[in-house]
Amino acid sequence: MTKYQVSSMSNLAYNGCGCLLLSMGIGAIGAIALASFLNASNKPMISEAKLYVGSMNKAQQAQFAEKSAFATSVNALGIGIKTETTNFKYSVRATKKAAFNYGLSKEKGFKSYVGGVFLVSAKNFEPNAAKDEITTKSILCGSDFPGTIKPAEPTYENGKIACGKGTTQVTR
Q1: Closest CA to 156 of 102, 118, 114, 100
Q2: CB contact at 8 A, 155 and 141
Q3: Which of 67, 43, 63 is nearest to 55 (CA)?
Q4: HSE on the CB side for 44, CA within 13 Å?
Q5: 79, exposed or middle or buried, with CB in 10 Å at 0-12, 13-18, 19+?
Q6: 82 with 9, same domain?
Q7: Environment class of 168 (CB within 10 Å of its CB; exposed 0-12, middle 13-18, buried 19+)
Q8: In this structure, how many other beta carbons lie within 10 angstroms of the beta carbon of residue 52?
Q9: Stated pTM of the model
């Protein structure tokens, strides 16, 4: 054997070992990623409902700014949200002074969400606002426990927005 052949064989052995270590490392990372994925499998579904109801709240605010009235259906919001997905049903209830947007769980293991958009005196939030100026304020609430029961609507009383009984504020 020449010097060149010996050197090549030792490089081959070294590279072969490197490939083995690399394969083991990739396998370990894959196993960790799989475990994380399996543990987080419900998170996208929960995020869907929060995202949809939050988007419905924003669309209601835009709807009121544009048309001086709240939308009375999910489709009327014009944001492309389906009224039903695999795990949730979405709906709207509107009055002249408020709109309530629902993401109702179809599965006993998921929480439901409700959003509220309220017409309020701008003076309550902006000291320099005109006396008769109105604005909208919103809140997003999640049920305290998983289930398929429609959550209680948020309220607006004495200048304060609050989640209904059995729900907790997710975001304003």
Answers
A1: 118
A2: no
A3: 63
A4: 6
A5: middle
A6: no
A7: exposed
A8: 22
A9: 0.72
Q: Which residues are CB-neighbours of 83 under 8 A, at least 6 positions away?
A: 74, 75, 89, 90, 91
Q: What is the C-alpha to C-alpha distance for residues 141 and 126, in angstroms, rounded to an integer?
A: 24
Return d(Cα 170, Cα 172) in angstroms, integer.
7
Q: Which domain holds residue 5?
A: 1-41
CB 164 within 8 A of CB 153: yes
Strands 88-94 and 98-105 come out as antiparallel
Q: Are residues 150 and 75 in the same domain?
A: yes
Is residue 33 located within the same domain as residue 50?
no
Look up residue 115 and give its two tokens.
């959003």
Q: What is the pLDDT of residues 63-109, one digit of tens each?
A: 999 999 999 999 999 999 999 999 999 999 999 999 999 999 999 99
Lateral strand order in the sheet of 134-143: 88-94, 98-105, 113-121, 134-143, 167-171
Q: In this structure, is the dihedral angle defined by the CA atoms of residues 66, 77, 47 and 139, taken in order, positive or negative? A: positive
Q: Are residues 83 and 144 in the same domain?
A: yes
Tens digits of per-residue pLDDT, 139-165?
999 999 999 999 999 999 988 999 999
pLDDT at 136: 94
